[in-house]
Design brief:
homotrimer; mainly alpha
């Protein structure tokens, strides 16, 4: 598999996106500390008192961005891996991965910086295009096994 | 891997389930627009005003269905892939995948259409059976490496 | 792949962690029943009445633990699989997997038993170390394909 050029390209972009998700998690933690808004009483107690066991709109925004990543990046990790095994054109495959990767990075930036709608939705939709394309190609490739 | 009949079958059912999850995401967006209930102020502003930056029970229901999918379908993507490499009987493997796939589709329908309890819980439990079966088979197959 | 000792070790620890997540899901359901706090009106109706369609802090705690697992264990399933293909030292690889596995189990125990901060955060951070290490090694291994 590590001699499959398409798989290597897929592994590279996927790892970038996982690191991007880790960054969102770190930002969430930083916003919690800065805004003093903790999800657990034991965290609040360690950081000034139970009054900081509370929600905060900025923290919730980070969590929505993170959740949307889970909803979309995790399926990509599966679709991209199987698609890489279908022996696609390396150039076409890279375009798939690149569009998804850029789309998801723009999505995160638009979410966290609260960019004007529909920036975030457009980034989401663009990133879904290669996913649908890969899903359809997988379904076609597995046709002989449909029944 | 693409010559492994079990893996192809697994890839087929998994892709169907990922597409199903994308459908839940699309439905969530449609319900947000119809009920005018947006998760972000910037979305509400674009769709009539800040008063639509609010929660809605129907939207929350879609989100719970989606989250439950993440909790269960994503682990299946891993378990099914490794199980496919264990050289199981193609028929037995297909039964595993099919039960999970049908169970999860029924789960989503029961969730979104608010079918009477315990329809949804039963669908969830049935879908977990092949997952537990695959997990146990993986543990047994990796026994020589337990220490 | 099933002759790759590192992959077998990875498959073992990953399956343990997926089963651990299933246990969190089961605990969540048990706490819902015990505290009579259901996420859906149809579930509440079946369990005593609509007044039990409500949130509960203990249920929310379980759900936060489960969500944190999704945010961290699912990326590990990807990173560990690709890392296993990089032909690492079996001993070094096992140390990566073991640290992650133990870190995540401690994280869950600290979350559910509400252990004093920062037990949970330390477990989370320790478990992230092998993930960052594997991510960096994947990026280095895919260098020739960066452009």
């Amino acid at each position: 598999m590590m001699e499959n050029k398409v798989f290597l390209s897929f592994a590279f972009y996927s790892t970038i996106l996982i690191l991007k998700m880790y960054v969102v998690a770190i930002i969430t933690g930083q916003v919690r500390l800065r805004k003093k808004a903790f999800a657990n009483p034991e965290d609040a107690l360690r950081n000034g008192g139970l009054q900081f066991y509370r929600q905060d709109p900025d923290v919730e925004r980070c969590r929505r961005a993170h959740r949307n990543d889970m909803e979309n990046i995790f399926p990509f990790l599966f679709l991209g891996a199987v698609y890489s095994l279908l022996d696609p054109s390396p150039t076409v495959a890279r375009i798939h991965f690149l569009i998804f990767c850029v789309g998801r990075i723009v999505h995160t930036i638009a979410y966290l910086l609260q960019l004007r709608a529909p920036t975030r939705s457009v980034a989401y939709s663009v990133a879904q295009l290669p996913c649908f394309s890969m899903a359809l190609q997988i379904l076609l490739a597995t046709t002989p096994y449909w029944n």
